[in-house]
Amino acid sequence: MTSRDHFLSRIRTSLKSANLPSSQFDLPRRELSHLSTDSAALAESFTRELTALACEVYQPQNDEEAIEIVLKIINDSNAYDVLTWDESELPLRGLLDALTRVGIKRSNINLSNEVTKRKTQTLELDAPLVGITGAFAGLADTGSLTLLSAPTRSRAASLTPLTHIALLRINNLYPDMASFLTAHPDITQDSSNLIFITGPSRTADIEFTLVRGVHGPKFVHVVLLK
After folding, report:
1. What is the pTM of this model?
2. Helical H runs in 19-62?
3. Cα–Cα separations (whole angstroms), residue 128 to 108, 161, 163, 215
């Protein structure tokens, strides 16, 4: 009996009892992260991984410099309106006032549960070129951002615009996902949606032609705040 015949025989036998054959191979042991928990070391690793993912990372010296960086990104994106989280959810005070001062329109759309209205609102989300959000955490080993949705933290702000600006306090960096989940064991109960964002949206067709920005932002900027 060939290996193929043996494999198919195992499947036929198992299907009679509705149990799939178990794997004959053990998964390799997962190596735990050896990253330091020092903020500077975490920021260095986080920045390195994000840069490799074609993201832009900024480490301003203070909040005033951070606001100037955000305004420049918006200006370089030729955007005149932005989609943002509620001001209380952004870790950068004074940003929304700065947007108003330079004439940038701010939208904070909370999608309706009513189908017709929700569809209309969704179509309107194509307009903003830039979305601004906070971030609950960052994973230093992969450059991933962790976002939790809420009525005042719309998922649309990080998913629909061409450019996503994420504001993250450096003390919310974790070495890896394991350490993050250990620190927040009940995190999935705190929101209707927990998402990990690792770089710009990427997709490839059957010919393996990589395209960015099809199912999400094409450009991701992360501002690390002290």
Report:
1. 0.79
2. 39-52
3. 11, 6, 9, 15
